[in-house]
Every structure is written in C-alpha cells, then in structure tokens.
Amino acid sequence: xxxxxxxxxxxxxxxxxxxxxxxxxxxxxxxxxxxxxxxxxxxxxxxxxxxxxxxxxxxxxxxxxxxxxxxxxxxxxxxxxxxxxxxxxxxxxxxxxxxxxxxxxxxxxxxxxxxxxxxxxxxxxxxxxxxxxxxxxxxxxxxxxxxxxxxxxxxxxxxxxxxxxxxxxxxxxxxxxxxxxxxxxxxxxxxxxxxxxxxxxxxx
Length: 204
Hints:
It is a single chain. With 204 residues, this protein is mainly α. It has one domain. It contains 6 helices and no strands. It is elongated. Keywords: Membrane, Transmembrane, Transmembrane helix. The chain crosses the membrane at residues 38-57, 63-81, 93-112, 118-139, 146-168, 174-194. It comes from Pilimelia terevasa.
C-alpha cells in the first residue's frame, strides 16, 4: 500500500518513515547512565585503594607498588570499557589512556627493581600521560556541561599528581604515599560528585 496523499495531491510519508523527535534525548540518557555507572565504579576503586594504601599496605615500596598497581589496572579497565562505548575521536584517546594504566599497573604489581624512585617514575608517567589523554578525550568527545567539566577536572588531577611524582627531587616512600593518597581522594571525590550530579534533573 502506497503513501497517503492530501487533497492537493501531495504524498505524505508513512508514520514509520518519520524521524524520531526523541532519539537524541534517549541517546543522551544512555550516555548519562553509562557515565554514572563508570563514575560509581571509579569512585569505589579509588576508595578501596585509598583505604588499602593508608591502613593495609606495608610501609615498603613493593607493598605500596602493589596497591597502586592494582588501582592502575582497575582504572585502566574502566577506561577501556568507556572506550568500547565511546564515539568519535575520544575512543582512541580513552583506549590509549586505559592501556597505559593497565600496563603500568601490571609492572607495579610484578615489582620494580629500582625501588621507590622507579615506582615514582612509573606511576607518575602513567598518571601524567593518562591525565593528558583523559583531558583530550573529554574535549574531543560527546560530553557536555557537567560531564565535560568533571572529566577535565579528573584528568587534570592525574596530570598534577603525575607531574609531582615524576619530577619530585629524590622521591621518598612517604612522598609517594602522600601524593597517591591525595590523587585517590581527589579522583574519588570528583567521581562521587559526577554520580550525584547525574541523578539531579537538569535546571529549566
């Protein structure tokens, strides 16, 4: 059966051929839900790692490295999950950041022969490069408003912590622990804020 016509002889397309006026709203809602789930997981990983680093990990470089390595692997896995669902130019950047985190995490868990200095450099470089990739991915990606600001701030926290560890003169274990705790606290707090913001209705 063909398309209906008006009295003037104009063809009217069937209803199922018309574009969905709410498609972009549903797509945005899916993106927000995905960001919320990832933010909850990232905040939980940062909280658990922070507690382990502050209270459980032995006060030795291998113990600190194991905790930070486990967190890097968890954070990298979340980045890879985000990359799998991302679109546009942010997919590659997020994936690169995730691979850097996972690789550095595995190296830290397996142990570094260089002691505290090597641990500071490996973790610092991973945070620095991962933070830069996160900022670029946020700018290039489809995020908007609060999601964009939150992703940029989270990336900048990583950049700041990475710079501190990488270029700190004669980094000691207390310095590495202190910078790492600040990094985990800042990252966890930002992800919690993003999660709360995602549950709030948009302002009219």
